[in-house]
Amino acid sequence: MKEHNQNDITQFIGALKQTILQSQYNAAKLVNTQLVQLYYLLGAAISNKAKQAKWGDKVLETISAELQKELKHLRGFSAENIKKMKRFYEVYPQMLTSCELAIQLLQNTDIENSENRSTVSTELMLPIRSPLETEIQFDSALANQLQNNFWSISFSNHFLIINSLGETSERIWYIMQSAKNNWSHRVLKNHLKNKIHLQKNLPNNFKTQLPEKSQRQAIAQFRDEYLLDFLSIDDTDDERILENKIVQNIRDFLLNLGTGFSFMGNQYKLKVENDEFFIDLLFYNRNLQALVAIDLKRGKFKPEHTGQLGFYLSVLDDKVRLPHENPSIGIILCKEKNKTVVEYALYNANRPMGVATFKTKNEMPEALQKALPGIDELKKLLK
Question: ∠ CA(251), CA(255), CA(260), 5° rounding?
């Protein structure tokens, strides 16, 4: 077989594979949407009926037992889950207006006459008219954005947000970000713990050093401070000890960095003629389509740090970066920084970079440290 034909076949197979994977992903999203809407609709029915009939938890347990008895092949109808469905609706009653499953039920063409349709609505304690006629209690722009994302995240993620936050605006922020970034349950849990909605963007020069299409995404990708609560280090520990402990806990570090990161190595060697240089930590980010070099500093940020990192980025772009990728990005991760000094230092830097700080478990408030289990306690819990 000729080489050019083999290349054509390889590219064609790659395109087919991508199409299949995208189709499976879309199908999974549809299944998730249907399940979330079902749970929401059941929650609405149970909530309204319970208020009218003044039902307590005992009745909900009876409903759960009967559903599990009648629908043995289906899971998800435990008493605890039934209560979660009820609360899910009660936290977001406004979303009934965009629940397609509710609309289909109330306008079901299989129900031949309005009398039967009314019976279904009455039994489930739902409005007889289309929910679309109900006024949404958010402003229109927010309502449109929320409707596009609300049903796309999993029920478990929804409930994690509900249990972690009390403010509706904060809950909406995490719903939108979860949908946009496809956060897993574990990633969302980590972001909620770190309260990333309160964190500022790190000082950077992305607007002058990155292509326009990548600037906003890069700014949103990195944070001003990272809580590395999985690390415990002493004041005397240097950058190499910090680096080794990060590598030993690389999965937790990746969770803190956010979505799209792959670890390429530590002490990544760059060779310039007969000289060798080493990057502390090197990553690749699929969302940014760029290499990300992290330079660790145990002390306070100094202006000369940008020169060293800029050199690394120049070599990466020349010797490692692929033609289709965006310019390499550098992050100086230090113990503390003076914002004004950082801004002056970045002003003249000719490579895209930012400066962030970190805190370890030792530097967390004492009350929060006590709330976290120690290594020995974790071992006992896992036995």
Answer: 100
- The per-residue pLDDT for 372 is 44
Rounded to an integer, the average pLDDT of 295-305 is: 94
What are the tens digits of pLDDT across the range 85-94?
Answer: 999 999 988 8
Is the pLDDT confidence value at 184 over 80? yes
**Structural domain includes residue 15:** yes
- Non-local (6+) Cβ contacts of 150 within 8 A are 92, 95, 98, 175, 179
Mean pLDDT of 108-116: 49
Mean pLDDT comparison of 22-31, 134-143, 196-205, highest-scoring range: 196-205
Domain region containing 257:
199-369
Q: Say which CATH number the domain at 312 has.
A: 3.40.1350.10
Number of residues assigned to the chain: 383
Cβ-based neighbour number of residue 206 at 10 Å:
23
Q: Examine the domain organization and report whether 139 and 203 are in the same domain.
A: no
Same domain, 128 and 223: no
Q: What is the 3-state secondary structure (H, E, C) of the chain?
A: CCHHHHHHHHHHHHHHHHHHHHHHHHHHHHHHHHHHHHHHHHHHHHHHHHHHHCCCHHHHHHHHHHHHHHCCCCCCCCHHHHHHHHHHHHHCHHHHHHCHHHHHHHCCCCCCCHHHHHHHHHHHCCCCCCHHHCCCCCCHHHHHHHHHHHCCCCHHHHHHHHHHCCCHHHHHHHHHHHHHHCCCHHHHHHHHHCCHHHCCECCECHHHHCCHHHHHHHHHHCECEEEECCCCCCCCCCHHHHHHHHHHCHHHHHHHHCCCEEEEEEEEEEEECCEEEEEEEEEEECCCCEEEEEEEEEEECCCHHHHHHHHHHHHHHHHCCCCCCCCCEEEEEEEECCHHHHHHHHHCCCCCEEEEEEEEHHHCCHHHHHHCCCHHHHHHHHC
- What's the predicted TM-score (pTM) here? 0.61
pLDDT for residue 235 is more than 80 = no
**Do 106 and 46 lie in a common domain?**
yes
Residues 54-80: tens digit of each pLDDT: 888 888 888 888 888 877 777 788 889
Do 148 and 241 sit in the same domain of this protein?
no
The answer to whether residue 196 scores a pLDDT higher than 70 is yes
